[in-house]
TrEMBL record:
SUPFAM superfamilies: ERO1-like. Its cofactor is FAD. It is a peripheral membrane protein. This is ERO1B-like protein. The keyword RNA-binding does not apply. May function both as a monomer and a homodimer. It comes from the Eukaryota. Its main location: endoplasmic reticulum. It is found in: Endoplasmic reticulum membrane. Belongs to the EROs family. It comes from Mya arenaria. Keywords: Disulfide bond, Electron transport, Endoplasmic reticulum, FAD, Flavoprotein, Glycoprotein, Membrane, Oxidoreductase, Redox-active center, Signal, Transport. InterPro entries: Ero1, ERO1-like_sf.
Length: 463
């Protein structure tokens, strides 16, 4: 009996050693893969980001530990969750004959009852003036002062003139995308939390035509390159490389969202659809072997786009610190302000910012011509978003392109250029952002942040 107990004891020790060793090996494998990415999707996700001084590892740490949790909390607040957009525009480039009829492509619009008090139509007529005047004077109307049941759709002469002044002012600034005219009845508020960006089933010729038009007709490329699968930037100047990497990074970010929030069909007739991570879809889009070696570079371009928008937020920090974030709810507005200040404190302390002062150097006339071409190409891409056949895809495409355009507007505005320069209200150029620009800027950056966080999720799943 004693001999039997001894044998059992030895077997238990051996089993514990084997299982423990396997767990440790698995853990060590994860650490090795994280620090030395190796082959597959992540083989280029280490070292310096192209055309920048920042390392991928530093951005992973900054984003996943500090930025992502703050963005997730901040973007759930009323000021940032309600986005006003025109989804009814006609495609200006071709007949839009491929509308998505699937239920997941539909966008749920907000009614007046859904909106915070400060965003209701009664307030819309004066909202832009309120932003000019900081939107929070003591004589703002209270809920008791406004009859919410009767909506006055007229616009006063003063407001009409203010909107015209806004248009002239915007045209005079470095605008990189076409903003929807939210003074008309064609724009609707959308609750972004109720209409999340994820896989809808929209695929095939229509989205291929969108991206092909963006890359082939509006992206700078080397003479021997064509199509959005090309990635050779040999012989291209810095400005053209920056443009391509920003668009490629945005494309990669959207692809990650679709893989991370993928729609799995019901397994039975009585089952329900489920959303979740689709590793097969992620590998199809980014694996080294399945993309002829291009996928890993597309992932790295995401980090470049992240750095550009991070720098824009840092440069606009003095302006954003003074913003009121008005929704009509003092407690909510104060919470948003505190959240923004907390985020900006983290962003400003990051040392390796993108340096926009390196762009458009050299011969002044040639540099100005290249800058105008850069801006025209990007404005054209913002128009292409109106050709997207899926309303939910169009919503998020317009938002993210507008956010990137706002970032570029910030980078090339203000009293100076370079890592130490800032923009603020009251500067020499009288810099100004509309509410829709602030909302799109932070939400677009939030999408990039969530993509980098999702990369870590996929990395762990693969490991």
């Amino acid at each position: 009996m004693a001999q039997y107990i001894k044998i059992c004891f030895i077997l238990v020790i051996a089993y514990t050693y084997i299982v423990g060793g396997s767990k440790n090996k698995s853990k060590n494998k994860l650490l090795v893969n994280r620090e030395t990415p190796g082959p597959g999707c992540f083989c280029k996700l280490n070292g310096e980001v192209d055309d920048c001084q920042c390392k991928v590892e530093s951005l992973d740490s900054l984003n996943n530990d500090q930025i992502y949790p703050r963005m997730k909390s901040l973007l759930s607040r009323n000021f940032f969750r309600y986005f006003k957009v025109n989804l009814h525009k006609e495609c200006p480039f071709w007949a839009d004959d491929s509308r998505c009829a699937m239920k997941n492509c539909a966008v749920e619009m907000c009614t007046q009852d859904d909106l915070p008090f400060g965003l209701k139509e009664e307030e819309d007529k004066e909202s832009e003036n309120k932003y000019i005047e900081k939107a929070q004077s003591e004589d703002c109307p209270t809920k008791a002062d406004v009859t919410l049941g009767d909506i006055d759709t007229t616009i006063s002469k003063e407001s009409q003139q203010a909107f015209k002044d806004w248009t002239k002012y915007d045209d005079a600034q470095e605008t990189f995308c076409e903003l929807d005219d939210d003074t008309t009845g064609n724009c609707d508020y959308v609750d972004l939390l109720l209409n999340p960006e994820r896989y809808t089933g929209y695929k095939g010729e229509s989205p291929h035509r969108i991206w092909n038009s963006i890359y082939n007709e509006n992206c700078f490329k080397a003479p021997d390159q064509s199509g959005y699968n090309s990635q050779s930037l040999t012989g291209m100047c810095l400005e053209k490389r920056v443009f391509y990497r920003m668009i490629s990074g945005l494309h990669a970010s959207i692809s990650i969202h679709l893989s991370h929030e993928y729609l799995f069909p019901a397994s039975t007739c009585y089952g329900t659809e489920k959303w979740g991570q689709n590793m097969e879809e992620f590998l199809r889009r980014f694996d080294h072997e399945q993309t002829d070696g291009r996928g890993p570079q597309w992932l790295k371009n995401l980090y470049f786009t992240y750095l550009v928008e991070l720098r824009a937020i840092a440069k606009a920090a003095p302006y954003l610190e003074e913003e009121g974030y008005f929704t009509g709810d003092d407690e909510e507005d104060n919470a948003v302000k505190e959240g923004v200040l907390d985020l900006l404190n983290v962003v400003k302390q990051f040392p390796n910012q993108f340096d926009e002062s390196k762009l458009f150097k050299g011969n002044k006339k040639e540099a100005q011509a290249l800058k105008e071409e850069f801006r025209d190409h990007f404005r054209n891409i913002s128009r292409i978003m109106d050709c997207v056949g899926c309303d939910k895809c169009k919503l998020w495409g317009k938002l993210q392109v507008q956010g990137m355009g706002t970032a570029l507007k910030i980078l090339f505005s203000g009293d100076g250029m370079g890592p130490q320069s800032t923009v603020k209200a009251g500067s020499k150029q009288k810099f100004q952002l509309r509410r829709t620009e602030i909302v799109s800027l932070l939400n677009a950056f939030g999408r990039l942040s969530s993509s980098i966080h999702a990369i870590e999720v996929f990395r762990r799943m693969i490991s």
